[in-house]
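Two proteins were folded this term; both appear here.
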Amino acid sequence: MDTAQLITEVKELLGNAEMEKALSRLAAFMEGKPEYRQLNRLVLQARAQFQKAQRDELQGLVSTEQSKLNYNQVTRQALQVIEWLEAGNLQPETSFTASRSRLWPKVLGAAFLLLFLVSGGYWWYQSRQAEPAAPLSAACPVVFKASSLFNILIVPFQALNENKLRPHFTIAERLDRLKQDYNIQADLKLYPEESPDSYLITTDDASSRASDCQAQLIIWGTAESFPGNAIIQTRYKFVNRGGQLPLSRLKLTENTELDTVASISSIATSGELTAQIEESIKLLFGLIAHETGNWPVAIEMLEKFETQDSAASLVKGMVLAEDYLASNQEEKAWESYNQVLEQNPKNALARNNRGVLNYKKGNYEEAAEDLSVLLQEDSTDTEALKIRGSAYLKADQLSKARLDLQKARELKAPDRELNQKIEEVDKKIREEEKTKASAEAEIRANPNNLAAWNQKAISSAKLGDYQEAVNAGEAILSRDPGNVDAFVQIIKAYRSAGDTTQAQKTVQRAEATGISRSHLNQIAPFDIKLSPVRTNTIPLKKN
């Protein structure tokens, strides 16, 4: 298809109010073509803002008037791209393509940093004061632009000693420059220092101030300096979001495609950053881009943000995973959840979402273990029970699969898919019982038949008879001490029963015979390095 045909098709889609299709069609046409790189980036931004507008409207986060304004903004952007495309203007004069090399200048030394923080972006503040002033309200001395999709209020940082640092000027100047460089439809205001109530102490004060000024994000903090050093504590709060930022919860459709449940709370809407100013700005701007629906920019900023603070790391990881998912980068989302769970192993939302992604990747054992952590918090979560039951079924843990699927059916209305899966499990259980009985008959005829012992171990584990699986594996090792398959069956049985201690001891026994962990990993249906989750679904029987 040539450009003229594309323009005609997109105009027709826009005329029929099919914005999502129009923007997706433009993005598909421009993807991978260097000459359209600048326009494509604007299209992706418009699509992200459209999807954000849809999400906010469905969740009731914006008024009807604001929703119309959001959609109109996207429509104007789409029409502007079409106009440029028709005119052959593939590199329009916008601030959208500003060089990234100047965004993050290197710090030239502690003395220079202190001087910069003292002066801050004062020149920026003075230049902003020259802009025509809008009428002020009694409750707030600043007024945001009516066209803004997201309002940011920065309050003067309180100096804790005689060296009056002004990091609020620096933060305001950097955020303002970034929003222009990336064409983020937001407005930023600095609360006047001369106001008697300019400083903030508590989060409640911040919420009240933001509400008075109709801001969606408020930033404040404290600053103190010492010879060659400065301590800046940057605090922020997103308002009109309740107590926590909404993030999506993943689920699977019947065709094992990803779907999302309407947003649920996960991480706090407020926080304190003790990182250097430059790092704090990366996180703040990443969150601003996320809140405005510009996922590519949010990803770019959050990927650059580095911190040792566990709370800030959680915010970064969860929001970054959300934006990867929105951008159809499932593998990167999975990796982001891995990083979150290294520090926060009991995070229920991360466990659910990684569990769903593990299931889609074919990591059924790991999927079941992730969802087990979630179900420890809420054993009546029918969606998690269905997915874990399906994962157990895929992993041939038939007894566990039936327990989960049966419980899910009892907790919810009749479900055709659930009934079919339970029938499938019951059929497999009957078949496995026959296979096990046959193996036991062969063992009685020849106790040294290692293949029969191995089959008994496999069938016993599938049926949830973990102690029998262990005993069968040990029977093999008594006859063949270096049998890899036997070690794997024993480890799997202990792991499935949740006995982490015995599972690790068996790994060590295998290593003592010369079997490496890498070799075990090649034939195990799970990552041997990871500790199993104690589910207590079916306890291991003790002799």
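Next, the second protein.
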Amino acid sequence: MRRILIVDDDPDQLEIRQLVIRHSGHRTAIASAADEALRIFDAGRFDTVVLDLRLPAPETGLALIRALRERSATVRIFVLSGWPADIEQAPERAMVQEVLTKPVNSGWLLRRLALLACLALLLASGPLRAAEAVIDLADAREVVASLELSAPGTQWNRKGREGALARVTVDGKLAAHVPVFLGGTPLRQSVLLGRLSAGRHTVHVERDERSPEGVELKTGPVRLRAVSQPDPDFQMIANAPVLFGRRDDQLFTDVPLLAYCEITAAGGRTTLEYTVIFSNEDGGTSTRALMARWGRTTDIEYVYRVSFDQSGRRLSGIIQTRGHADVEFTGEREGEHPLLGVVTLNNMVAPEGRSAIRWAPVPVMADLSHASREAVMDQAPWTYRIAAEELEREGKLRPFGTVNGQNISDPRNYLTFEARILSRGARISPAVRLRDGIWQAAHLGRADYAVERPGWARMSVEVPPGTTAGDIQEFGFACLTEPANARAPAPLAGACTVEAVGAVFLPGRDFAPGPRLWTRPLTAPVTIDSGQMVSLPWK
């Protein structure tokens, strides 16, 4: 049974439609004007709206469609119109499920609503071992699927019982694999299904046979979304990369947890940069350096950057490949989606290197002009738990107060600082003084563990287990001379500037960032020379 709002300024048609739809078993409400419809929609929980476009002018109906879509991304809108041209070429066409030409046969309308009801019943049932959904497209569109998945009895830190692998197909063809991280706790994830042609398509979700033996996959509601111009997410979704897992058959290491996209526009050029957050990296930066320089042990890598001119013509498409080199992508695409293989232990990509595992996460939009990249993880705090559990499973943890190669202690022992920094021929690193009077520094005495990149950054200092805000006496930043490398000698001097301090926190019991411990803004940027350290009052 659906909750359906019917909108028409013709009282006779309104009464007839209500009688017919209510007789078929649905709950209904009626409105004869756009403003009345919005009041009723706001007061109720309607999943479907059937509206006449001319209320009495098409502009009124189009404005109502926009207002409904702003209120709900999932409400299904059916438009009735004696003049379909009023909407078919309008931007609002992408916001509705169907446009039915008047006069509309009541039986046909009921069949469309019945199909919707059957689909909704299927999606609402569960949890199941497999799920199937159907989508009807009037024209070719990009489609994404939102999946609710769990794997009871698994835990990411248990070798051989880490989780499950879900397999998503469209009309029998593989669209994506989805790693299931959180044991029996359902987690909703979204995947790209690609550009699907007009017509009916069947989306099937099931346990992949590569899942550990005996591990069960449960699926909850599946939601499908068709996207086309002028949807604000269309360009981001249509150009998002598809990744293929490394060929070493390691299903539950360095898996993509999230993807995000940053969009910039300048000089008539629009650029989309896609970044993937992997659960760890099996090679490249050491775990100690990750905590010191980034304040987390996930691997956050940009994989694809694409630019367009004002007409929408693609100007360039750059990938980050071996050695962190930026190169023009010349490989295969599906539609506009580049197909990228993960080819290194630190998650660099290339046109080759495809495997049987296909990752296709839907990116989220991110504006990081006032925050570090880790702020995306803050919006999905379970990512910190997965990163910590992967460290445990892979033997990368050690007891506090000991040294064991590149291992770190429990991630909850690290005080994290976020700051906007700028260095010139030098690197910067935070430090903290506790009640014992000893300063603890993130860089651990190594200049290569300090940070040279400008902008917002996170860095972490290891502190004793159980440390609280009351144990902290003061904190500060040290400026270290840039270390020498094979291409250039070390500079004789440099300088570091702390332009702002953002979040300062200790992780909570669930490994996610805890409350902010220091909220006093800097009154002015602080600049120090290499070899110097600046202290800031804690209280």
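The radius of gyration is 27 Å. The CA atoms of residues 6 and 30 lie 5 Å apart. These notes refer to the second protein only.
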